[in-house]
Every structure is written in structure tokens, then in C-alpha cells.
Amino acid sequence: MTTAQKQASFPTRLKALSYRLEVMLTVGSRISSVIHRVYNGEEMYCKRVLQQLAQDRKDVKAIRDFNTTEPVASAWAMTDKLMDMELRGRINHASEVVNKVVTPLNNWLNEAKRKLRAVVMQQQAWKRDLHKNEDAVIGNREQCLELLESCARAQQDEAKKKEETAQGGVSFFSKISMGVTELYRGSFPELHRRVQMAIVDYQAKIDAANKRMEKYLKGDLLRVCHEYRQLAVTTVANIKTFLGIFHQLHEKQMVKTKPSVEALEKFLNTMQASGGIPAMLKRAVEDHKKVLPDMMKRQRYTYELPVTMEEVKRNIYSKFGPGGKPRPPSIFGSSLEQIMKIQKENKALPPLHRKMAIPSAMDALISLIEKLDGLKTEGIFRISAAKEDLNHLAQALEKGFITGKYKFSSTSPHVPACMLKRWLRSLKEPLVPFSLYQEALQIVRPDGGYATGEPTPQQTEQVREFVKKLPTIHRNVLYTLIKFAHKVNAGADANRMNLSNLAVVLGPCVLRNNQINTQELVREARASGTFTKLLLMTLKPAPAAPKSTEPKKEEETAAKEEETVEKNVATPGEAAKDSTPESKNVPEGEDQPAEQNEEEGKE
């Protein structure tokens, strides 16, 4: 059972156990109702028969010389006495069963139902409390965002005012406009103070919500399990006790119902002590404790404002940095050229990271797949991952790309594999630029039909010449991807992903059309997979990206450039292992989120 399944199964088990307890109490009520109806009817029937006997006695006395007629009179008297004793004994037995079994059993069942309703209502109250805390966190976040935007606009107005003053003074209408705006939204210092107070309150709300969630996961849920267990044990024990009393009374009085008594005795002997509920609850609690750390990590609220308190103190209120310049773009939705420029100019990164010929995020993902034994995992790159896991990994990638320290909490190789595909698809321009899309199609279907089977010598030469036309960074990333695909193909017996299957799943990452025409996309969807398969079969053994880039002169030939790339190849993940030792041991958890581009490609 996976972690996500265990997380989802624990509340489901509690709900199922609640229904099971309700069914057990309903069964107890039904048993009590049946016994009550039977013996109430028995008592009423015996009373009617006694009334009939009394009437018969009156009728017999009216018969002349009946009492002196023998042996009829003696037989009648004996029969009347036996019937009277039998009927009165049955009435007493019915009354005893109602008083000793039905009434106390009904009283206890009503009390048990009240306790069960109280537990369910308490659990619902806890859930409402959690939802209330969540709404409070969301409301505070929205308030903080509005104040940050107001501060950003106020800061822009202050700058505009200083600029107009420097150019010769502020016009009368500008003064009126700025005064009205300041009167409406407050002065800049007041907004600054309100932002700090709002962020402090927002952080306090997050801490309170996390503490309440921790209390619910660690204590409240386990307390519910304890209450359910007590109800289950006492329910079955009391039902068995009252049925035992009924059995004793029935055995003493009702000799003619021996088959029913034996069946009841067999039922009592074979009946489990608690219907299996304690064992089921014990397993559920053990499974819950195993996944509790991961649940607490996943269900924590995180700081989601675009700026921190330290940045607000430095007069930074929006996603724009000092001077109104945009902050560094995300690795998702950007071009490879932008990503490599940031990687080379970021002085906070280790020197080896800045010299890498491919984005360090790609190298880290490939290393993580290999570390999690993804080369032997069945369906790698084909089986999708949970959206929540992908979001956590995306935040870790964003932070690691800026700091150079990649810290991942993923335990399944499917998560980094899906993230690698998502990142490649989110690029502004695919590995094969849009300008070369039609030329790639001509290689795949030179005569209007798709190429199949082994590549021809002509196609092999066309592919090699085509790859030389790619931009350097695109070619390096493509080489790295192809080399890793051949590694996956080497373990095809275990992972069931040969070159054909890899071409299908990686095709959209390599080649795609920028047209939004649906019919055109459907008609040429097969082209990406076929072209990717042609690349995989032509460029084997596949070269990898160089470990570091060296300036190349423009007059060097394409053949010499390719030879240089092949000579400086490095195994994927090698650079990350050398420059980021933190990525070797994947720690548990990632507390701080990073900004994620809204245009991130969906899996």
C-alpha cells in the first residue's frame, strides 16, 4: 500500500467503522425488538387463553351433573389445572424476559447510540474547526496581498512625486490627485506599518492552524479510534450478555423450543468477542502512525506571500525587485537561453554549476531518478505522479536552482521522471525550435508518409546534419536526454520501457508545433514520437552534454563542434554530485516553498 493510499484509507476506515458500529447497534435493537414482540405477544395470548378458561369453567358449572360425571370431570379438572399452570408460567416467563433482557438492553442501546452520535458530532466539530482555521489563513493571505499591492502603488506614487519635484515641482492637479489617493488608501508609512502587522498576523494564523492540524492528527483521530473501540467491545459484550440471560431463561421454561435453544447456543459460542473491530482498529492506528510524519508534512500551511518580512522592511512589496525590475524568472515557462543566463550570472551558485552546459535542475532530476532506482522501475516516464508530489518537487527545484542546493523529499522515481517531462514541456521553445519544425517533419515523412522501421542511411545523415543546426544549449540538453534514454532502454527487461515506448512519452518534450489549430495538432501528434525514435536510433551510443562550456569560435566547423561536445561528455548527474553534495542524501521534507511560474506546463 502506498503512502497516499494509507493517508486516504485512514479517514475512510474510520467512516467505515462508524457505519459498522451503527449496523451493530441496529442489529442489537432489532434483536431486542423481536424478543419484545414475541414475548409481548406470548403474554397477551396466554392472558386471552386464561380468560377463555375462566369462561369455560363458568360454562361447565352450568352443565347439570357434570361434576359428578366420572372420569370426565377428573380429566377436565386436571387438564384445566395443568393449562392454568402452563399459561401462568409462560406469562411470568415473558414478563421476566422483558424486564431482565428487553428493557435493560434497550436502555443500553439508546445510551450507546447517544455516545456514538456524540463521537461523530465531535469529529465533525473538529473538521469544522480545521476548515475555519484554513479559511482564516486564506483570508489573511488575501489581506496581505492587497496591502502589498497598495504599498507597491504607494511607493510608485512617492517615486513619481519625487521625480516631478526634481523636474520643476508638482502640478496643482497632481497634488489634488495624490492627496485624494493618499486620503483614500492611507499614507505610505501607515501602509508600511499595516503590512508588517498583517504579515505578523498571517504568520501567527499559519502557526495556529498547523498546531491545530498537528493536534488533530496526533490526538483527536486516535481518541476517536479509542472511543470506537470501546463502543465496539461493549456493544458486542452487552448483546452477548443479554442474549445469555435470555438463553438461561428460555432453557428453564421452554422445553419444546430445544432446536431454537441449540441454535442460539451455537451462535453464542461461535460469536467473536468484539466482531473483529479492535484488530481492525489496531491495524488502522499502526498504519496511521507510520504515515503520520508524511501527513503532517504535506498538510502543513506554508508561507505563500511573494515577499518576506525582511523584504518588506527594505520597502519591497510586490513581485518586482528594487527599482521596479522584475525578479528572476522561474525555470518553468522560460527559455533555455534565459535559464542558462541566470545560471551563469548567479554568483551565489558554486563555480561548477555556473560552468555547466545544461541547466543544473535537469542534472539534479536525472540524478534523483537514478538514486531512487528509476532505471529498474516498471513504467518509468509512463506512469504519472500525484499532483501534490509534483508541486513539492517543483518548489524544491526553484529553490535549488537559485541556491545551488537541491534538497528533495520524493521517494518514488515516477515523481522526478514526470517533473523532467513537465519542465521540458514548459519551455517557451522546445528542444527542436519552432523554426526547424517543418524541416524535422520532412525528415520523418519525406514522401508524405511516416517513416517506420530502421532508419535509412539517408535519414541517418539527415538527422546528424539536422542536429548540427540546433542552438548549442538545445543540442546539449538533447544529447543529455538521449543518453539517459539509452540508460533506461538498457534496463527495458525490468522497466518495460524500450526506445519505442520512450519515444512516445518523450516526443512532445522534443518536438511540438506552436500552432493552436486543433486539427493540425491531432494530425501531426504522431510526428513527435516518430522523430524522437529516429533520434534515439540514429544517435547511439548517445552522447551527453559537456560538463562545462568553453567559448568556441564562430568559424569552427559543425563537425569539429560536435567532436568537442562528444569529447567533453559527462555522465548525467556527475556535475550535480560534484557541486551539490547535499543532493546525494535526500533529506526528509522541504519547508520553504519557492515561486512557481503560473504558466507551468501541466502533466
UniProtKB/TrEMBL annotation:
One GO cellular component term: cytoplasm
Rho-GAP domain location: 334-543
Basic and acidic residues bias (residue ranges): 549-566, 575-587
Chain spans, region Disordered: 542-603
Record's compositionally biased regions (Acidic residues): 588-603
One GO term (biological process): signal transduction
InterPro entries given in the database record: AH/BAR_dom_sf, Rho_GTPase_activation_prot, RhoGAP_dom
SUPFAM superfamilies: BAR/IMD domain-like (SSF103657), GTPase activation domain, GAP (SSF48350)
Protein's recorded name: Rho-GAP domain-containing protein
